[in-house]
Each structure stands twice: as C-alpha cells, then as structure tokens.
UniProtKB/TrEMBL annotation:
Protein name: Ribonucleoside-diphosphate reductase subunit beta
Cofactor note: Binds 2 iron ions per subunit.
Catalytic activity annotation: a 2'-deoxyribonucleoside 5'-diphosphate + [thioredoxin]-disulfide + H2O = a ribonucleoside 5'-diphosphate + [thioredoxin]-dithiol
Residues binding Fe cation 2: 107, 180, 214, 217
Cofactor: Fe cation
Amino acids binding Fe cation 1: 76, 107, 110
TM regions (residue ranges): 173-195
Family statement drawn from the similarity comment of this UniProt entry: Belongs to the ribonucleoside diphosphate reductase small chain family.
Amino acid sequence: MKGIINNPTTDPNKILPLTYPWARQHYKNGVANNWVPEEVPMQQDVELWKRQGIGALTPEERRMILYNLGFFSTAESLTANNLVLAIYRHVTNPECRQYLLRQAYEEAIHTDTFIYCGDTLGLNPDEIYNMYNQIPSIKEKDEFVVAMTQSVLDPNFSIRSPENIQRFVHDLIGFYVIMEGIFFYAGFAMMLALLRQNKMVGVGEQFQFILRDESVHLSFGSDLINAIVAENPGIWTPEFRQQITNDIRRGVDLEDAYAKDCLPRGILGLRADIIRQYLEYIADRRLERINLPKIYSMANPFPWMSEIIDLRKEKNFFETRVTEYQTGGNLKWD
C-alpha cells in the first residue's frame, strides 16, 4: 500500500479505492461550506463605518477591526503560498491532494474576502496590507510562521530521509496548528464578539464563514500530521515532541501580544487577559489533537465561541441565510 507521502508526483489522482477516508470526508465538508464574499450584504457596514457621533463605532472598535483586517489579509496569502508551493508537492496521496485543491480554492476566497471588505468600506489598501510591516505584533507572527515553514518552501527540499520527514511534520504543525489553529482565533473571537453586538454584521458574517472553513482546514491538517507520524513513528521522538510543545507555547505568547495591541483597553466584554485564557484553552485542544499532552488546563472563557466553531452546531447559521445575500454586492453609495 502506498503511503501518504513519497509517491510518484505525476500520477493521475486515482482516488478510488480510498486509502484515507477521512481526507475524502474533509473534502465533502469543504464543498458543503461553499460560499463567496459577494453573497454577504454590506450596506449596514458601510453606513456604520461612515457614521459619526451617537451610535458610531468607537476608536477602539475601529482599531480592532483594522488590525484584524490587516493581519488576516496577509496571513491568508501566506497560507495559500505554503499550500500551493510546498505542501501539495510533498503530500502525494490522491484523496489528500483532492482536499488540498479544495483548500487552495478556499484560501483564494478568503483573500478575496478582504479585498471585498476593503473596497466596500473604502479603506486604504496600503494601510491594510502594510500592517505586517508597521505593527510589531503582526510582523512577529508572520515572521514566526515563515521561519517555521521555510524548509518546505525550499525547492530542493526532499522528504526521503527520516530527518526531513520530521522537518516536514514540524512545518505542517507551524502551518496548520499554529498559523490556522492559534494565530487566527483571537481575531475570530474579536470579530465575532462585534457581530454579537450587531455591529459590522457583514464583515462579522464573513469571518463566520471563514471560521467554518478554517475548522475543516485544522481538522484535515491534524489528521494529515497524525497519519504521517503513524507511518513514520521513528520521527516522533521525545525531543521532537518537546520542540513542538515549545513552538505552540511560543505561538500562544505571540498571539497574546497581538491581542494586547488590538485591545489596549477592554471592549465588547473582551479584555486581553481573557483572550489569553482563550488562547491557552484552544492551544491545549490543538496539542491533544496531535497526540501531545495539554500544558495549560484552562477552561473556555468564551462558551459562545464553542457553538460557532463546532461544525455540527454551525448548521443553524447557514440555514438562516436569506436570498438577499445573492444581491449583497449591489451597494448604494452616498
């Protein structure tokens, strides 16, 4: 039986018979989530973004929105580059590649979402896209992920040796577990807290769609990592497990610093210290998902986020989509 990596890379994607049914299921879940940003109406957001005085967004709310748009707009392009340029090349199992093609499409949709939001709100693209250079906490997160995934982006990198298979798993953890599983989640909590206050509902609903996608990305990535380790158990040494745990701990610290930048004072029932608790809670879940012991033992301070993240509970949101979404891109400007 062929393994999940190191098969001939030019064979047709002969998906049947399935070797990894979980990969096929993730593909089906991705298809079921299909959406595009233009389906979401933004008229309310435009009106609120322009409003002055009573009922307007506070400066702290605007800061939080801009920081999250700035981080996500660059982070989504980083994930797409890793996926297309590196991961697909090395993960050669057909049903996994089929899912990776689906994920690449979703990353393009996410990138397009921030173009749509920026254009609709009339934001300065230079300000949004240069935040990774101007905001230290955003820059540190991006640089951390780039450093963790630099091996797979090397065109001469091969995963034939056990050492390089271990390095590949290390980079996959940086990509899926830390970038998509930790670095995105403080932003999700902030933007969805805003949505719960019925503010910037169009942007918030698009973050909700993205969260639905990312939960499948994270599940696929964890299953992929576990499958490679199961087929190459020699790479899962105590030293390597400790390195991964330390990387995840560092990821939590970097995301904590970002949350403090976004929330210098508490708003919307959010404070940076509560975000830290949430990050520790989800970090433990990420560790357990790849068969490592948890390190924080923190309770979930945002039980409402569990309802949004859990796919089986997200169904209600998608059942309530209305036909108005089909004309959401037709905005009226003053």
